[in-house]
Design goal:
The chain is an alpha/beta fold and 273 residues long. It has one domain (3-265): Rossmann fold (3-Layer(aba) Sandwich). The chain is 49% helix and 16% strand. The chain has nine helices and eleven strands. A seven-stranded parallel beta sheet has the order 3-2-1-4-6-7-11, with helices on both faces. It has a two-stranded parallel ribbon with strand order 5-9. Bound molecules: NADP nicotinamide-adenine-dinucleotide phosphate.
């Protein structure tokens, strides 16, 4: 991209991990990048923006500021998110709501704020960071999975509404990626009946994340999606075994799939001890 052809992308969650790698790579590929987060740190070459996706006013102001400065918004890549670990039964609803607030409602807020500009420009791209956890229910991360499943359902539905406007939405489904996500996960340990089972599952998921792919690999997929004339509705990225899991869920009888996935999810059907 050169001169007048430069396109503008807003990347949320750009202070770390996948968002930061994406902001950096898109800048190298010639985009004007606005890198948003609460910390407001940005990779070199990107315009930093302090924006909390949990907050209506912050998102409205942030998107308006981008439009004031650049006059357009060609793409939004929504990476802002965090993980909540805890048992379904004992997770306080306030914690569950907070998870949905950032991962689901935060993504929704930014897309809704950007759409009027995309509509009046005659098109745009929304790229939402879902997860393998948005395809497979992750034990002891149920509310995290719920937030990502919610994005998956909404994206499928709204894609029909937005197609006539030239706006495309793509779900990225990474497996384990080595980022700050693991350390920043809020794990609710209450020492109750689920404690041991949860600890086993959390230990497996943390180990897998630490052995996960580099964030750059996800950034490269985002860049390909944004460069594609016919972007996919969803694309998985990660180790082959994880991608096989996604396909397995779609094609296998569910009980069979569930039984075969237990080992890699760190859970069993034995009584809780
Ligand atoms: N790592 C993985 O294994 C993995 C796998 C699948 C999907 N994902 C998804 O990928 C996305 C990025 O995760 P990551 O691995 O890159 O994690 P990360 O390194 O912890 O980065 C998370 C980013 O989200 C931002 N963020 C969190 N809450 C925010 C809020 N309320 N408003 C604005 N920004 C907020 C953080 O910035 P501030 O704290 O500065 O606001 C940070 O920039 C998440 O949606 C995650 O669910 C991750």
């Amino acid at each position: 991209m050169t001169g007048a052809a430069r396109k503008v992308v807003l990347v949320t969650g750009a202070s770390a991990g996948i968002g930061r790698a994406t902001a950096s790579l898109l800048g190298e590929h010639g985009w004007d990048v606005v890198a948003a987060s609460r910390r407001g740190t940005a990779p070199q070459g990107a315009q930093a923006l302090v924006m909390d996706v949990d907050d209506d006013g912050s998102v409205e102001q942030g998107v308006a500021g981008v439009l004031d400065r650049y006059g357009r918004m060609d793409a939004v890549v929504s990476c802002a998110g965090w993980g909540l670990g805890g048992a379904f039964e004992t997770t306080p609803l306030d914690e569950a709501r907070a998870q949905m607030e950032t991962n689901f409602w935060g993504t929704v807020r930014v897309a809704r704020a950007a759409l009027p500009a995309m509509r009046s420009q005659g098109g745009g791209r929304l790229v939402w960071m879902s997860s393998i956890g948005g395809v497979l229910g992750l034990p002891f991360q149920g509310y995290y999975s719920a937030s990502k499943f919610a994005l998956e359902g909404l994206a499928e539905a709204m894609a029909h509404e937005l197609a006539p406007l030239g706006v495309d939405v793509t779900l990225i489904e990474p497996g384990n990626v080595r980022t700050d996500f693991t350390e920043r996960r809020r794990v609710l340990r209450d020492g109750g009946v689920y404690a041991k089972a949860m600890e086993r599952a959390i230990t497996v998921m943390e180990r897998d994340e630490q052995n996960g792919v580099d964030a750059l690999k996800v950034a490269q997929v985002v860049s390909r999606v944004l460069g594609s004339r016919r972007p996919p509705r969803r694309v998985s990225v990660g180790r082959a075994s994880e991608r096989v899991g996604i396909v397995g869920k779609r094609v296998m009888p569910y009980r069979l799939f569930e039984a075969s996935a237990r080992g890699s999810l760190g859970v069993s059907r034995k009584p809780l001890v």
